[in-house]
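BACKBONE STRUCTURE TOKENS:
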Amino acid sequence: MTPHTLLLTARDTGAALQIGEIARSAWQYSSFTPVLYAAAPADRVLRGMGLEVVSVDTPVVSDTGSSDCEALFRTADEVLDMVKPDAILTGLSGHGAGIDEAIIARATGIPCYTFQDYWGDVNHLFDKIADCYFTLDESATRLTRERFHADACITGSPKHASYARLDTGILHKGMRDQLGVHDDDLVIGLFGQPIKQETDYLDNIECFAATFSQTAAKLIYRPHPDGSPEMTTKILKILDNRNIAPLNGAHTDLIEMLCGCDLVCSVFSSCNLDNIYLNYYSPAPLGLSVYLFLNDRMKDIHRTQTGQDHPPIVDEGFAVKCSDKGELLKILAGHKELRAQYWHRIRQALPDPEQAARKVLAKILQDLG
């Protein structure tokens, strides 16, 4: 039997890690010939995973009237003509449209799948969406079906299966030693995001900084790899105005940094979910994932993008959200007890990611007949 050609694409870091794990599994199937195409920074991530990938230099467009759409569609057509896939699996990125969305938009008569790594998120800028979305859990599946009437299949998170091989204790100690902090020091990680509503996002950061400045904690700040230097400069200025001198996490390994933090803070970065899975595999509590919704606009943006006021994982008892400065202060004060409480809950109830990639490939094979 001739193997099915599976075209996999990605364009951002989080998506690349998911797609890369699925590609690794696909190579173990005689039923598949996987072919990887990716835009930056996903191509670098995939090569770092030891995978063979073809890089594409494609723009990210924010509306369908952009002059860059023609170039984007031309590249997608060239990829489809060259690969002639039997099935397509793309990553998902929330800002604008790029190679993933263009491939789906231009594919005709080819089953298209997307791995959704944030609950209820569907990129529909080009109107045409994937035939099926692979989701993290039941909440994500429900949201996807309700909001977009799209088919969805629960698989769990493929990229987090690799965390089983990590020694989180060694990573925790190594990161703390590298930062020069003691066991009793409270270390908070602030993870940046390329949120296009810049003024609202910076106001959210200002609220965080105003609260943080009332503590003796240490802050490590990691800009998003897709973020602009200008955004980083503005955030550092906000922190400096509050006499906060953050440790620089820009070039620190993400997993090591997460393991070294007592609180992992972002608006709705995938880093929070990464941290939850690190806790799942850790024999002792690591950091607590905290979603920062410190102004109404961040809540509105999340609601618009996902259909929910906050990530469902908060309601499932795996993370916390902050709606105001008072809530953040309470979390800071009680972080040791909260970390232990949420670690126990995660270890008991979080879906095991070990079979996630296999579930994705099994669904595609089933559909291909």
